[in-house]
Write a structure and sequence with these properties.
Elements lengths: L4 E3 L3 E4 L3 E5 L5 E5 L4 H11 L7 H6 L7 H13 L3 E3 L8 H6 L1 H7 L9 H10 L1 E5 L3 H13 L3 E6 L23 H13 L4 E6 L5 H7 L5 E4 L7 H12 L3 E7 L2 E7 L7 H14 L20 H20 L9 E6 L5 E6 L7 H11 L1
Parallel strand pairs: 6-7, 6-9, 7-8, 9-10
Antiparallel strand pairs: 1-5, 2-3, 3-4, 10-11, 11-12, 12-13
Amino acid sequence: MRARPQLKPIAVIRRPSEVILVGRALEATYLDDTDGSTSALLDLLTEGKHTVGELPAAMGARGYTVTGAEMAAAVEALDEVGVLLRAGSDDDLAPSTRRRHESNLRFYDLYAGMRRTSADHHRAMARADVLLLGAGGMGSGVLQSLIGLGAGRIRLVDCDTVEEKNLARQFAYGHYDIGRPKVTAARDWARRYAAGDTVVEPIHEEITGADAVRRLGAGADLVICAIDTPDDVHLMVNEACFDLGVPFIAAGLQYSMLFYWSVQPGVSPCRLCLELGRDEQSATMPELATQHVLRSTDKVNRATGPIAQLLAGFVTLEAGRYLTGTDAPVAAATYHTVELTDGMRTSRESWARHPACRLCARTAAVAVA
């Protein structure tokens, strides 16, 4: 079927000699419309009934002469600024998929265009294979969000059992799950909720080294680290993901501050780069050692339900960027924080590749070769 361009449901502001298209926040496209032809084209595109080849005739019926080349260039330009969809692109999805994932598909409209549709983004998520380390407050929330997005397979790893205290913030579990392994309880919840759309593989195991992550993550597209033990777990996952060649996301709550970041091996600076940089700073400024947010010994869990859900949301959005390619990851080598006790103040700080990082040096050598 030939593609039919359709204008996204965005704000269109018409003025005597111009039209303003307002799509994403803080983005506006100004189009000349001295003769009314732009408005006429936008009206036709809103309908989404014509192919690019049919649009010149439709414009002619409205009194405007446009060549095929001019129309193709106009549609291309509108697609480049992100205001067009491919009409009917959801039609090849199963009706049950369209019904269940309607809101997800409309979210993907923000990033879709003539070349890559919202259905394409959904299919990418449906093919995704994720290794999720941890089924606690953040991990169970990420699990729920990934299943809601229609992720294809989730390998869920945790060594804990459900306790009564978990029920304040881990909503994949109920009182009837107390004493059960979290991973099997979470799998059972997923079966009820997703009706088999997402395969959850429960793995009751403690992560003690990079070898375990390499073994469990073989063939995965993404690793999400939702555990904070052992103390060097982020470095373990970082090393394993370099060997696996897949990105990973880490997050947590440090006292009253939420944080999350990600690493794309061979593309972004890695977690070892951050560690080396901080060690270098600490050597010259010893007072920084006590401010190293990733090394605190505070193990008190202050994550209420809303906090765990908020953090899980940030992490899952970043996971979606990696898995579907909607846009570039926002947290790659970038430390995002939300300070809960300071008016929800947010900050983001990127770190650079460290010249002594053996992992980044290894991938750089492979790229050159």
